[in-house]
Write the structure tokens for this entry.
Amino acid sequence: MAQEKLYGVMAEFDRAEQLIEAVKQVRSHGFKKLDAYTPYPIEELQHALGHEKSLLPRLVLLGGIVGGVGGFLLQYWSSAIAYPLNIGGRPLNSWPAFIPVTFECTILVAAVTAVLGMLALNGLPMPHHPVFNVRRFALASRNRYFLCIEARDPKFDAAKTAAFLWSLNPTHVAEVEV
Amino acid sequence: MADGSASVTPAAPTPLIAPGHTTASVTDKIASVVLQRTPRWFYPAFGAAFLLLMLFLYAVTVLLVRGTGVWGLNVPVAWGFAIINFVWWIGIGHAGTLISAILLLLRQEWRTSINRFAEAMTLFAVACAGLFPILHLGRPWLMYWLFPYPNTMSLWPQFRSPLVWDVFAVSTYALVSLMFWYVGLIPDLATLRDRSRHWFARTFYGVMAMGWRGSSAHWHNYEKAYILLAGLATPLVISVHSVVSFDFAVGVIPGWHATIFPPYFVAGAIFAGFAMVVTLAIPLRAVFGLHDFITARHLRNMAKIMLATGLIVAYGYVMELFFAWYSGNPFEQFMVINRITGPYRTAWFALILCNVLVTQLLWFPKVRRSVIGMWIVAMFINVGMWLERFIIVVTSLHRDFLPSSWGMYSGTFWDWAVLIGSIGLFLSLMFLFIRFLPMISIFEIRTILPKRSRGEVS
């Protein structure tokens, strides 16, 4: 049962255009569990893979709101409730003076959300991943383009999928061990 | 151009990246700077910076042991070098975020070659800047009192004070710059992990890259995060120097209490920051042979930004004179006359020479094309921006309203030691950065290569 030990089958391409074409072919053949690995972000590839809209912008908006409201409340509470200073009868809730810190807190929490949210949505840090078992995969961070059909795809069959990937004119096809 | 066939398109700009590069050659070239053996020149260069860093530590130790009395501070000039250096460094620290965030949003593709080390420069400049107000506190070990936290004294920071705004602005800026820089580094750290042969380097870069594998789904979120960070950093960078200027503008001291301060400070910060980027970029590209990536066009564009922001700064100087005259306020008028003809007039004239007169040389294409010429102009601006903060801090404070409380100020040996030592801290961090991390964003250069072949970028 070699198939149980496989993460998937991976094809390597020389050029980004070949990869994008291959992704379209693979998707039109009904494969669903696949991912492409490239040395730089490629917009057409993301369209071809049909990624859903990223959740990140909404998370960041939420982070910004939390930061802004939290920052203001912190100042309101400490200046008007916890430690009120009556200076010539001026209002304790002097909100115009609270704007700079409210603004900085908004940016800070939104930015932290953007970074941590990106890492969380991507499942990073992940020290190891099966794709690294393919020796030539090191080139994914240089100049090669990889396409992996994963074993959890219902249509997956190690031999047939590999043969199908060979038909897409890759330079290499390799089985990805778990 | 070199083949002699008369060029029919004379307007064709110098390319952003020298022709003939592929994703592979770009990767290998930039990564090799980090992965090669340490070049011989590195040791004396780093050693010199490290000596200055030791001077810094020594001067700070003397300060901590003997107190702020070792500095030239006294009433009426209680701000002195510490605040001058703080504003100078934080100004330098503005170019990185400007280049990475604002120029990214404006789709200025040329930023790609310089954004990484400009961001590093920002980070290190902000680190230097942040130290000065802390050292200036008198009891620096109590600096955590600046932050709002429940304490046994039942005290809270005074949130109506620009000095507290400053704490929030500078610490937010430092953190956001760090995150922006690190996020930008992740794919390149993965590249270094895959390229390096030594087990230690592989482990180090592997841990830092957090298992980045260039998955398309990851790039999708990554690009969103990067552009969102850029969008957040853009108003932040404007806010930071505005808040720094509030430290002055909210006070009632003549020469400080002006509405022009925030934009004038922000322009000055960009001016100073680009000058420092040019100061560092020119030697770096010569030493590492990076002329293919940091081309004459990059230097020219930076020269133009320096010229534009320099003109805004000059406009600020003119407006200061105008406000003093137009306000009809005798204290403001005295302040201006004292600046130009008083005991600090040499510094004022040197400031005008550095920031206004020398900068005008950048109008000449000949100067913008000359590497040495650009570097000299940038050095003048570095000095000029320090003088600007010196003039603002010292001339306003030393003769304010009451002649009975007038005084003179000058830095002592320890003031200068901390200033020069902080340059050592900055350069040491910079040297470590160029030795251990890719100083040009590899993946972003890879990204613009196919755009160039499609003719979207020249």
Remarks:
- The mean pLDDT of chain A is 86.
- Chain A is about 45% helix and 15% strand.
